[in-house]
Automatic annotation (TrEMBL):
Record-given protein name: Lysosomal amino acid transporter 1 homolog
Natural source organism: Phaetusa simplex
Principal localisation: membrane
Domain of life where this protein originates: Eukaryota
GO MF annotation, one: L-lysine transmembrane transporter activity
InterPro entries to which the protein is assigned, alphabetical: LAAT-1, PQ-loop_rpt
Pfam families according to UniProt: PQ-loop (PF04193)
Cellular compartment(s): Lysosome membrane
GO cellular component: lysosomal membrane
Keyword set, alphabetical order: Amino-acid transport, Glycoprotein, Lysosome, Membrane, Repeat, Transmembrane, Transmembrane helix, Transport
Function: Amino acid transporter that specifically mediates the pH-dependent export of the cationic amino acids arginine, histidine and lysine from lysosomes.
Mode of membrane association: Multi-pass membrane protein
Family label: Belongs to the laat-1 family.
């Protein structure tokens, strides 16, 4: 998507700002909730990367939004974009180091249905921190689901997906599928039942696997608008801008 934005230069028209903000909000809450709810280290590390990628994406959106409206300010905009990007990388790298320190190394064990005896299985009580993290994670999953709707509407309104990289959504679908499977295949803690394990990770499973259906809708839009037919408004603006019209 970064490459597609730089190639087409219309990221401010191709992507919905509400899609980007919803995605960023979901990733921020996902990061906080992962810490508080004591999720897997993989979930924390990917959450840090997601926030970094979202901030860069929003920076590109703002860059092209200002650049396309005021072409006389290209040099200051370029300088501000570079400065913001460097600051973003530095800030999130600090978060990444904090995540690495906070998470203790643990041996990963494959899923085993017989990890605990039938008499030993039982619900693991939620701590206060986990309750807060679970709630934040639930809001995060709702933001993930809602963030797709503005982009679906933007694609429908434009009748085009030019400026939007399908690789972004294809890799998101693949990543979310593997992310969800990695959580499901993780062995429960000793004495914890599988149902209780899924319950503790439910918001993150919904956030990863639940958005697949909406991403499939966007995939169908790429097929329907693959010729990149411009919307009637864009056609009208192009006709009004042609020389000789009077």
């Amino acid at each position: 998507q970064f490459y597609q934005a730089c190639k087409t230069g219309i990221m401010d028209r191709a992507l919905s700002i509400y899609f980007l903000l919803g995605w960023l909000g979901g990733d921020l809450l996902n990061l906080v909730g992962s810490f508080l709810a004591d999720q897997l280290p993989l979930q924390v590390y990917t959450a840090v990367y997601y926030v970094l990628a979202d901030l860069v994406m929003l920076s590109l959106y703002g860059y092209y939004k200002v650049k396309n409206r005021g072409r006389g300010f290209a040099a200051p905009i370029n300088a501000a974009f570079v400065f913001l990007s460097l600051g973003t990388v530095w800030t999130v790298s600090l978060l990444g180091r904090g995540a690495a320190v906070a998470q203790e190394p643990a041996a990963f064990k494959g899923r085993s249905l017989l990890s605990a005896g039938p008499d030993e299985l039982g619900p693991k009580p939620f701590s206060k921190s986990e309750i807060v993290g679970f709630t934040i994670g639930s809001v995060s999953s709702v933001l993930y689901l809602c963030s797709r709707l503005p982009q679906i509407y933007t694609n429908y309104k434009r009748k085009s997906t030019i400026g939007v990289s399908y690789s972004l959504f294809a890799l998101v679908m693949l990543g979310n599928s593997l992310y969800g499977l990695s959580v499901l295949l993780k062995n429960p803690e000793p004495g914890q039942g599988e149902g209780d394990y899924v319950l503790h990770h439910l918001p993150w499973l919904v956030g990863s696997l639940g958005v697949l259906s909406l991403d499939v809708v966007i995939s169908f839009q790429f097929l329907a608008y693959r010729r990149g037919r411009p919307s009637p408004r864009e056609e009208r603006d192009a006709l009004l801008g042609e020389p000789g019209d009077g």
